[in-house]
TrEMBL record:
Pfam family for this entry, one: Abhydrolase_6
Annotated InterPro entries: AB_hydrolase_1, AB_hydrolase_fold
Domain AB hydrolase-1: 66-227
Naturally occurring in which organism (per UniProt): Actinocatenispora rupis
Top-level taxonomic group: Bacteria
A molecular function (GO) term: catalytic activity
Name used for this protein in its record: AB hydrolase-1 domain-containing protein
Stored SUPFAM superfamilies: alpha/beta-Hydrolases
Length: 240
């Protein structure tokens, strides 16, 4: 409110999916591997777009348990492999962060409704960079790598994908979006507690410990889905 009782106008920078650099030097198109799962009943809930970790075997295929959990909960689930991962063609050694972010954003804008972006590991790093280009309905960063508090990606990316590994370890932190969506930072039992807390504070987000079954398995998605029902419920659920 202003001093005279009138409402102040707050100007927020628009989210630009396409930028001048994309027109001047466009990213080469790629035929992306995408896995989809939809619930048996029609739903108006925000769909989930999963982005895998660099270490996930089979890229998008590794997220099948999360796709099944999403559909069982009544939400459509999609998983995309950025270029050079899984069955998506592309350079494995020379791929850049810009190309990976492009792949994520392109799949998100193709969905019929604003999506919830869920990134795992290095996929969470990509999602964080995509936020200033895509107005997600909500964001979930699961065991994020390459972000403040937990930047070291491991020797694998540094040796096998030097450009990506260097960007993970030494690259610029992603810009925080002007219109920040609801955001959850989640980690399994082995994820550093200090990193989870630091990221939650940085993004003004909620931190959540996720239960993990067998070693190396994906964390349980049930607490994430319960959180989503609170922050982005389906429109028909609001009317019920």
């Amino acid at each position: 409110m202003n001093g005279d009782g009138s409402r102040a106008t707050v100007r927020v920078a628009p989210t630009r999916v396409w930028r001048r650099w994309d027109w001047a030097k466009p990213v080469r198109p790629a035929q992306r591997e995408v896995r989809r799962a939809v619930p048996s009943a029609e739903t108006t809930a925000a769909p989930l777009l999963f982005v895998p970790d660099l270490h996930d075997p089979g890229a998008a295929a590794a997220l099948d348990p999360w796709l099944a959990a999403a559909t069982d909960h009544g939400r459509a689930g999609h998983a995309v492999s950025p270029r050079g991962m899984g069955a998506t063609r592309g350079r494995r050694f020379g791929v850049t962060r810009r190309e990976w972010v492009h792949d994520v954003v392109q799949e998100a804008v193709a969905l019929p409704r604003r999506a919830v972006l869920v990134g795992h590991g290095t996929g969470a790093w990509l999602v964080a960079h995509a936020l200033h280009r895509y107005p997600a309905a909500a964001v979930v960063l699961v065991e994020p790598v390459g972000l403040p508090g937990h930047r070291f990606p491991g020797l694998g990316p540094l040796l096998r994908r030097p450009r990506i590994g260097r960007s993970l370890l030494l690259g610029r932190d992603p810009a925080r979006p002007a219109q920040a969506p609801p955001l959850l930072v989640a980690g399994g039992g082995a994820y550093p507690a200090k990193a989870l807390t630091a990221l939650a504070v940085r993004y003004g987000a909620r931190g959540e410990r996720l239960p993990v079954g067998t070693p190396g398995a994906l964390p349980d998605l049930a607490p994430v889905l319960a959180w989503l029902d609170e922050v982005v419920p389906a429109p028909d659920a609001q009317l019920a």
